[in-house]
Amino acid sequence: MEVTMSSHSLSGVLAPVVTPFKDDFSPDSDKLIAHCRWLLSQDCGLAVFGTNSEANSLSVSERKKLLDDLVEAEIDVSRMMPGTGCCSLTDSIELTRHAVTSGCAGVLMLPPFYYKNIPEEGLYRYFSELIDRVADDRLKIYLYHIPPMATVGIPPLLVEKLLKKYPSTIAGMKDSSGDWNNTKLMLDNFAATGFDVFVGSETFLLENMRNGGAGCISATANVNPAAIAHLFHEWQAPDAKKHQQKLSAIRESFGKTLMIPALKAIVAHYLNDPSWKTLRPPLLQLGTTEEKQLIERLDSHNFDMPGLS
Amino acid sequence: MEVTMSSHSLSGVLAPVVTPFKDDFSPDSDKLIAHCRWLLSQDCGLAVFGTNSEANSLSVSERKKLLDDLVEAEIDVSRMMPGTGCCSLTDSIELTRHAVTSGCAGVLMLPPFYYKNIPEEGLYRYFSELIDRVADDRLKIYLYHIPPMATVGIPPLLVEKLLKKYPSTIAGMKDSSGDWNNTKLMLDNFAATGFDVFVGSETFLLENMRNGGAGCISATANVNPAAIAHLFHEWQAPDAKKHQQKLSAIRESFGKTLMIPALKAIVAHYLNDPSWKTLRPPLLQLGTTEEKQLIERLDSHNFDMPGLS
């Protein structure tokens, strides 16, 4: 099997970093910086402003201010892939330009997701307009395919067309379809030319690496980063399958619990800091019982978050 | 049958006003002002920044600037219901506050539409947080139920709960579900207490008025306002049903043509101004053949846009 090594700095495991809020629902920069430092210490990159970051509940100016705060705190931008895709072309351009000039290694870009049944040509014009206007050779775009949430997806023909026109800008994708057949199609069609395919869950990490993928960007990397990063590095080791099974079991212990409040409850629990549980409306924190059961299920796997402070 | 007359200034027919763009996809204020003037002259209110306005392709600052331009041009704010609902609470608050301080009679508010499977309690907290923060007695909210586009809807229990807590702020809703049973449920449950139910298409206008509704906010009111407004005023006249059938036939002549590019093509045709056809990506204008066939179908109904200039 042919495996292409990525030339990009962002391969590996990244967390869509959860965003802490103060009581008044304003973002808490200090706590975000601390969580980013801990993730980096666990060999985990920073997909800040992803779906699980509640980024779509933040305004453009709030996202820019948070990134400025991270940069000022000297959080490593070479490990950073902020989400910059909005419904509006002008918003996406503004966030993307800001991420690039801040030195971020790449951006994770949702398609415009309000208008539905958009022909592929429309999505192509949207992305090409954005790339032409940002007009910066440093721009590296990771296309974000997450049909369960965005409804609008990234079809293979769109990737092909964008790669043909912008081979050095279109750096890869995150596939959060949860459909391995779609990931496999992307790998088979595009990975050999250096297009980095990230799976959206560590459940598919070993399979992704065996097929030439670049890593994973997974919600649960917020709480279990080192173990996931270990599999990324050791995917060719004899016990890789066993390690994958253990990762998958921990992920499965989330059950039907909603992911974002679950992640925040876990961070709050292991930090002993209840303020971490705050979510911006319309998202709600877990009920007491649901939270207790989640922690008990994780305990049964001897789960821990070492070094968190 | 008991029919409650609305006490709000916004009852009647409103158009989600299409937004003209320049060649560089920036909004064209002058053309928007002209179209608003024409709509008002045809007895049509202004639901600017709705779905059909491509509002979700505009940034917050672009929407504020356009509204400022309309106000400066002395477009009647008492007939204006701008869309102000975004994914982010902070964006929605900013736009809503701006609309209220600009004197707009009401706002049309989408629920936060990125995160899916939101419990009703989460939506309730989102709206209540917004209302508490805007904290202005002049605020009148029309809830915008459009599941085919937003995916996230406005369930009846949410309306009930919001009406109970904020009876003078929750002024009504626009139901763009296309499901008359849902509209009927809203009318039966809430219209008697002065909650204004607008249907999202003139196809349901007569039925809505017969059941205590407040009017319609319809895409096609951008091009056929006077005839729709006529039915609103004359719904109790003996020939109302015939008039409804004629309106519905014109609407049906759009066929499967996508609504926003179709509206822009029609305005461009009757104004003889091809620049009106420009849409912001990801939306695309109609192909030449599709456009020609649409105009022909409208011609067969002796359709016209009198006074447009």
Beta fraction of the residues of chain A? Answer: 5-15%
Poorly predicted regions of chain A are: 1-7
Most extensive interface: pair and counts?
A-B, 39 and 39 residues
The chain-level structural class of chain A is alpha/beta
Q: Can you write the helix and strand succession of chain A as a string?
A: EHEHHEHEHHEHEHEHHHH
| Total count of strands of chain A | 7
Per DSSP, the total helix count of chain A is 12
In one word, what is the shape of chain A?
Answer: globular
- Assembly context of the chains: homodimer
Radius of gyration of chain A: 18 Å
What distance lies between the first and last C-alpha atoms of chain A, to the nearest angstrom?
42 Å
Helicity of chain A, in percent? 40-55%
- Give the tally of structural domains of chain A: 2
Query: So what's the CATH class of the largest domain in chain A?
Result: Alpha Beta
* CATH topology value of the largest domain in chain A: TIM Barrel
- Tell me which CATH architecture of the largest domain in chain A applies here: Alpha-Beta Barrel
- Main beta sheet strand tally, sense and closure of chain A: 7 strands, parallel
